[in-house]
Specification:
The complex is a heterodimer. Chain A is 79% helix and 0% strand. Chain A is mainly α. In chain A, helix 2 crosses helix 11 and helix 6 runs antiparallel to helix 9. Chain A is globular. In chain B, strand 3 and strand 4 form a beta hairpin. In chain B, 30% of the residues are buried. The chains are: A mainly alpha, B alpha+beta.
Chain lengths: 312, 103
């Protein structure tokens, strides 16, 4: 078993047992910042070696996926789940957007096994982060009244994750390779160590959400597992359409399957305050994140292998 | 001992979700607060434990010293705008200050 997964389990178990373990908030923030920067940098370095225009179709395709996924999730939550409109919209937005932590685990999984994946996936990660938020807001309250779009766009575009991912991409893209070599040991070589600490904390956080699960019942649990499975199918199908490699298809499926817990909660809290944040966070952190990390990623790789793929 | 010239002002303490810090501070300035102090906080209330383990789980405590009129309009605004949907507690108390024009 991958050591980083064991770190996640350690956090999860320690949290469930209410062990006296807690990462200081500023350490967690630092570790998650490092992850965002590393992922951005890595993508940027690779992007520098290919013409940007060729990537536009892929970027457009994932944006469409980011719009479609919440549109599928919303009616399910509203009708089958019986959630209020605001709650259904907010949960749908979480599941249409992406989790950088899950993506990082996926990347580590591929790297450990020497599996090739398309280097512009971090760019697609950035593209997938935003559309679902806008769809969620519109689903909750329509286009017109009462949305402070200024505050919302500030929260989305200047939120930590977008700034650091895009910033990292740009730095990796603009910096000369010789200069990059000097910061590689910190951002790239230590990546898995940083990820291990991050997952320890994520285990602790997930354990807290599991506690809230008992309150919200079976539907949310089922949704938290079935929705990512469905999304992974869509993601893998898109990877196939875009002629991705097996590794790339698996990572695109992982991106589709992941649910946000950083950018979307903050944006939803500001723009759809009447939505209960505990519902969406319980689902995305308490169920979907652990599911993807422990079971989903290997499963999505299996799935990608079964797609009839032309690429390398 | 000489009598120092103290004046009574109001101290508003607001404990709420870190996520609304920016819009809230904008509101405070618009409603006439001359300054504020923001600290990170954690604790437990009717909306559960908020232990600042990660972004969406943090609280802040905002302190504002102001006159009664400003405090009243801030209180009315917060109650109307935020009380329904956000974890928020607001306390008002008397404090003594030496430079009343500052607040």
């Amino acid at each position: 078993m991958d050591p980083i997964i064991l770190f996640f389990l350690l956090g999860l178990i320690a949290g469930l047992l209410r062990a006296d373990l807690r990462l200081p908030g500023s350490i967690y923030e630092f570790v998650s910042m490092l992850l965002l920067i590393s992922i951005g940098l890595k993508g940027g370095v690779e992007l520098a070696s290919q013409p940007f225009l060729n990537l536009l179709p892929d970027m457009l395709a994932v944006v469409l996926m980011g719009i479609a996924l919440p549109l599928v999730a919303f009616p399910v939550l509203l009708k089958l789940g019986g959630f209020r409109r605001a709650d259904a919209a907010s949960i749908a937005a979480h599941y249409g957007s992406v989790s950088v932590g899950t993506f990082a685990v996926g990347v580590a999984w591929m790297v450990t096994r020497d599996i090739f994946y398309e280097s512009h996936l971090p760019l697609l990660l950035v593209m997938l982060e935003i559309p679902a938020i806008l769809v969620g807001i519109i689903l909750a309250r329509g286009m017109s009244k009462g949305t402070a779009w200024g505050d919302v766009s500030r929260e989305i575009l200047l939120g930590k994750s977008i700034v650091l991912l895009v910033g990292g991409l740009l730095i990796g893209w603009l910096a000369d390779p010789a200069g990059m070599a000097s910061i590689e040991p910190f951002f790239f070589d230590l990546f898995k160590g940083i990820l291990a600490v991050f997952l320890l904390e994520m285990g602790l956080i997930a354990a807290v959400q599991v506690g809230a699960l008992r309150k919200y019942g079976l539907f949310l649990v089922a949704f938290g597992i079935l929705m990512p499975l469905f999304s992974a199918l869509i993601g893998a199908g898109l990877g196939w359409l875009l002629d991705f490699s097996v590794g790339g298809t698996a990572l695109l499926a992982t991106l589709a399957a992941s649910a946000s817990y950083i950018a979307v909660p903050a944006a939803m809290r500001i723009s759809v305050p009447e939505a209960n944040p505990t519902l969406s966070l319980t689902a995305s952190l308490g169920i979907t994140f652990p599911f993807n990390v422990l079971i989903g990623i290997p499963l999505y790789y299996e799935l990608a292998q079964r797609m009839p793929i032309a690429g390398p | 001992m000489t009598n120092l010239p103290f004046t009574i002002r109001k101290l508003m303490t607001i404990v709420t979700e870190a996520v609304i810090e920016q819009p809230l501070l904008k509101d405070l300035e618009r409603l006439g607060a001359h300054g504020y102090t923001v600290t990170s906080a954690r604790g437990k209330g009717s909306r559960g434990v908020r232990n600042a383990g990660w972004e969406a789980d943090g609280n802040i405590r905002i302190e504002v010293v102001c006159d009664l009129d400003t405090a009243t309009s801030i209180a009315a605004h917060l109650k109307e705008r935020y009380y329904d949907n956000y974890a928020m507690v607001m306390l008002l108390s008397d404090v003594q200050v030496m430079r009343p024009d500052k607040f």
